[in-house]
Every structure is written in structure tokens, then in C-alpha cells.
Amino acid sequence: IPGVGHKYYLQFTTEDYRSRENSGSCLATVLFEKGNSPPAVTINCVDTKDEKQIQEEDNKFYQKIKQQTKPIIANDIPDSYGNIEPAFEPVWALAVVGSSKIMWEKSTENLSYSMAQVKSVKQWIREDDFIEFDYTVLLHEIPTQEMISCHLRVIWLPGHPLKVKYFCASENQWFEETSGMESGSAAGILQEKEENF
């Protein structure tokens, strides 16, 4: 678009994180405006799973984490051989969802990110039903091949929006955002005072 930027039209399929099965198809437009980041995204997806199945999977995932008798504390997920212990798979999955917000915020038309590793994670025990984790994650920056360290806090309860706050080593301010605006396993916004972060 002359004087504005580049607009892309995308059609793609999504897959279930764990089973790798096709979980839906999406149509999207992505506008990279000159000098602006993140891109403006409009997306419409059709899930192959029904809403009840998604809610059941979210609840199973949530219960697995809530059944922990001690706070989860771990380092290097995956390990140096690329392995993730089964007990840490939910922790990794939540980090992937939370980190997707950072990757979207920081990506440009010529720069993208993927999550390489959870360097450390600590679960906070809350008196309410929400689950809360602090992460230090490494993002792989492409094409520079640099590894960017980010601190990430994720707060979630099934049926409620996911809350994500982050700070990356190359920045000097905290960002509080969400990964979507719909209620569900990884979307929307919750209110919490900044001093509780």
C-alpha cells in the first residue's frame, strides 16, 4: 500500500500442540505499517474441535498443574538434548502461549522470533483458583540468530482470559498485554495492580 506499508493475506491451518493433529483453519490479513510494530492483524479461524472438547482439554491441563503439592520450580526446559520431562509439558505449553505475545509484539516484517527454551520457571501459590508462573525464556531472533532473554509472568484460569506481562533484556519497561480478546485458554485480559507483579 503506497505510503502506508505492506499488507499480506494468509490462509493457514493450525495444529494441536500436543497431538500435532489439524485443529482448524484460519484466514488472516497482516498489515505492517511503516515505522509501526506490532503488525495490525485481523484473523478468523474455524476450529475442527468443538468448544466442549477444548474446555475439557483446558480443564485437564489446569487440573494437572493444580494437583501439584509443591510449587513447580524448574530450569532448562527442554534440556540440552531437546527433551521435556512429561511433568513439565504443561509448564512448557503455558510458556509457549505466553511467549507468543512477546513474539507478536516484537516481530517486524523482517524480524521474527521463536521460543527456544524456558531457562527457569517458578510457580506462585495463590489463594484464589488462578495459576501463576514466572518464567525466564530465551527467544531465538531471526535472521540475526541472537538469543533474547525475557522475563514473563502468566496468570490463567480456564474460561478466563490469559494475562501476560513481560520484560526483555533489551528493553527498559514492563509490558502488560494479552494474547487475544476472547474468553478461553489463551485470550483476554484480567485486572491486577502493577505492584503485585
TrEMBL record:
Name of the encoding gene: Ocx32
Natural source organism: Nothocercus julius
Family: Belongs to the protease inhibitor I47 (latexin) family.
Lineage, uppermost ranks: Eukaryota, Metazoa, Chordata, Craniata, Vertebrata
Record has Repeat as a keyword: yes
Key words, A-Z: Protease inhibitor, Repeat
GO cellular component: extracellular space
Protein name, UniProt field: OCX32 protein
GO molecular function: metalloendopeptidase inhibitor activity
Signal peptide as annotated in the record: none
Domain Cystatin LXN-type: 1-53, 73-177
